[in-house]
Amino acid sequence: MKKILLFAIILGGAVAFTSCSKDEECVDGSGNKVDTVDIPGVDFATECAAAGGTLE
Questions:
Q1: Which residues pair with 43 in a beta bridge?
Q2: CB 55 within 8 A of CB 49
Q3: Could you give the CA distance from residue 54 to residue 27 in angstroms, rounded to a whole number?
Q4: What pLDDT, on a 0 to 100 scale, did the predictor assign at position 18?
Q5: Residue 47's Cα: distance from chain center in Å?
Q6: I need a labelling partner for 15 at 20 to 30 A (CA). Which of 4, 22, 23, 34 fits?
Q7: Averaged pLDDT for residues 10-39
Q8: How many CB atoms are located within 10 Å of the residue 8 CB?
Q9: What does DSSP say about strands 26-27 and 54-55: parallel, antiparallel, or unpaired?
């Protein structure tokens, strides 16, 4: 039981830090923020490029 609890804490922490790590913004040529669609299995840079923006 202790191993399962430890695994759950580690996994929860990893998910929390991963979801907070997107500090980059997708912007267009004039500096306006571009809204992207979150596609499972596709990284943020590809989603931004598909929306017509660049990472900043």
A1: none
A2: no
A3: 6
A4: 58
A5: 10
A6: 34
A7: 75
A8: 10
A9: antiparallel
Contact criterion met (CB below 8 Å) for 47 and 15:
no
CA distance 33 to 22: 14
Alpha-carbon span 15 to 24, nearest angstrom:
18
**Do 47 and 39 form a contact (C-beta atoms < 8 A)?**
yes
Q: How far is it, in rounded angstroms, from Cα 45 to Cα 50?
A: 9
Q: 3-state SS of 1-56?
A: CHHHHHHHHHHHHHHHHHHCCCCCCEECCCCCECCCCCCCCCCHHHHHHHCCCEEC
- Alpha-carbon gap, residue 48 to 33, rounded angstroms: 10
Band of residue 15 on the pLDDT scale cut at 50, 70, 90: low
Place of tokens 């929306």: 51
